[in-house]
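#dry-run=false #mode=assembly
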Amino acid sequence: MSTIPFVIAVHGGAGTISPDKPNEAPYHEGLQAALRAGAAVLEAGGSALDAVQAAVQSLEDCPLFNAGRGAVYTADATHEMDASVMDGSTLRAGAVAGVNGIRNPVTLARTVMDHTSHVLLIGEGAIRVAREHGVEMADAEYFHSEERLAQLERVRAQGAGVTALDHSAQAMTDNGAPIREDGKFGTVGAVALDQHGNLAAAVSTGGLTNKRPGRVGDSPIVGAGIYANNATCAVACTGTGEHFLRACVGHDIHARMAYRGESLEEAGEAVVHGLLKEIGGSGGLVSVDAKGNVHMPFNTVGMYRGVFRQGGQPQSYIFRI
Amino acid sequence: MSTIPFVIAVHGGAGTISPDKPNEAPYHEGLQAALRAGAAVLEAGGSALDAVQAAVQSLEDCPLFNAGRGAVYTADATHEMDASVMDGSTLRAGAVAGVNGIRNPVTLARTVMDHTSHVLLIGEGAIRVAREHGVEMADAEYFHSEERLAQLERVRAQGAGVTALDHSAQAMTDNGAPIREDGKFGTVGAVALDQHGNLAAAVSTGGLTNKRPGRVGDSPIVGAGIYANNATCAVACTGTGEHFLRACVGHDIHARMAYRGESLEEAGEAVVHGLLKEIGGSGGLVSVDAKGNVHMPFNTVGMYRGVFRQGGQPQSYIFRI
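#status=ok
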C-alpha cells in the first residue's frame, strides 16, 4: 500500500509584539515538542486524528500556552476550557465547552466523539463523560498560576467587561514572552495530513482572561474554529472568537476550495485578510490540504506556529518570516 | 424610499407520520399565529431580525412545539434549552445553550447579541445575562407538562442513551399529533426578508427527550442550525443536530449560493438530500433569499412549516404538498 509524506502544523496563539526584550526560546521549544509528539504518531503510520490530538495534548501540558495547564482565568477567577477534534475522513467531530478540572480538554473532546452519539457537550454534562470514561482529571492546583492570576488582576484594573489589555493605555510586563501575554488570543491547535491521505484538526483554549463565565468562542465549534474534510483541508484557528464564529472561518475555507476552486492559500488569505478583517476580527490559523500544502495566515503581528514534514525537522516561527 | 415585499417562513420541527388519527388543526393554528406575529412586525416596516424573534417567541409560547414552554425533558428530567438569532445585514449573532428558567430563550439570545460583546453564552453564565438585563424568567411549573414527562418515561423505557423512540419497537400514542411526538426532531425556527431588503433567522429548541445533560445540537450554532447573510440567504434548521453540526448546513447553503452560484432551492436540495443524508442526517430547514424566494426542504416524512407573504395570507403545511 503506497503512502504519502505526512505533515503536521501547530499554533500557540496570535497577537502583538511585546515591548519587553523577549525570550523566544521556551516558546520555540514548546511548539517543537508538540510537532514532535504529533510527528511520532504519523511516522509510525498513525492517523492524522491521533497526531493532532497528541500535538494539542503537548501544548495543553505546556504552561506557556493558554490551554489545559496554562489556561487563563475567567472574571470569576475560575477556569473554563473549550476543545474540539474533527476527522476529515468521516466528518466526525467531538467538542466540549465550559469544562474545568480536565487535564487535557482535547482528550475529552475525542472521548465525546468516540464514546457518545454527540458532537458538542458543555459544562457539567461534559465533565460527567470524563468521569464515565476515565479521562484524567486535575485539581485546581494543577491549573493555578501566579502569572495568570496577575494577568487577571491587570486586565481587571482596566475595568469591567475588558477581556484583554488595551496596550495603548499602560505599559505592561510580559515576563519575556515574545507576544504580549495580556493581549494575546490564546488558543492552541494542530492540523495534519497522515501517510494514508487523511486530514484532521484539533483545537483547545482557556478562552479570554477575565471573560464572562459561560462565554464560548470559536474553538469548540465545527465550521468556525475547527474544520477538517479530506476533500479539501483541515483548519485550526486562533483569534477574536466572536468574529471567527460569525465568519464561519473553518467551513468558509473549505467552501472556497470546494465550490470556487481556490487553493488553500487563496482561501486562507481571502478569509483572514478579507471577511474576517471587515467585521473587525483579529487572529490567524494553521491549515493543510490533501496534497500536503501548509498555510498559516494571520492578520496580527505574530502567531506562535510551526510545521514538521516527514523527513525534515520541526520548524517554528513567531513573527513574519 | 422604495421598499420590497416582505416574506416570513417558520417551522415547528420535522419527523415521521403518526399512526394515530391526527388532529392537525392546533398545529396549523400555532404555525399561523407565529407567522402573523412576525408579519405584524414586517408590515409596520420593522426589521427581519425583530420579526423572526417575534415569530419564534410565539412558537416558544405554544406548548405544542419543543421550545420554550413546550421544551422536552432531559435524562435528568430537567429542561435545557438552546436558541439563536442572526442578522444578515451585519452578520451579528447571539446564542445561548443549556439554559433553563428562561421563558423565551430566543429573547435571551437577542440580548446576548445586543448587550454583550459575545456571540455564544452557555448555562449559568447565560442565565446571569438574563438577570442583568431583565429577561423574563419562568418557574418550573411553567415548563412542566404531563405529556412531556410521559414522553420521557416512554423513551426511558427503551433503554439508556435512547433520545427518541424507535417506532418499529412498539405502538405509541401521540395524542392526536400529526407527526409522531416521540420521534420528532423538535426545534422551532423562522427566517424573514423585510421591506428594506434585510435577512434574518432565529431558532429555538428544547433539544431531545431523554438527552444527556450538557448535549448541545445545531440550534445555537452559527453556520450549522442558523445562518443569515444579506448577500445570499437566511436559514433555520431542524433535525438530528449532530449531523447538522458536522455538515455546517446553514453556512453550506450560503457558500453554495455565494461561491457556486446555486439558487436557494438548488443549494437547499443539495444539502438536505445530499451531504446531510450521506452522513445519516434527518430533518429539514426553512430558508429565504434576498429576492424573497422561500425554500423549505426536508428529508423526513413531514415538517411543520408555514410561509406568509406581504399582501397574502399565512399558509401552513405539515406533510408534502
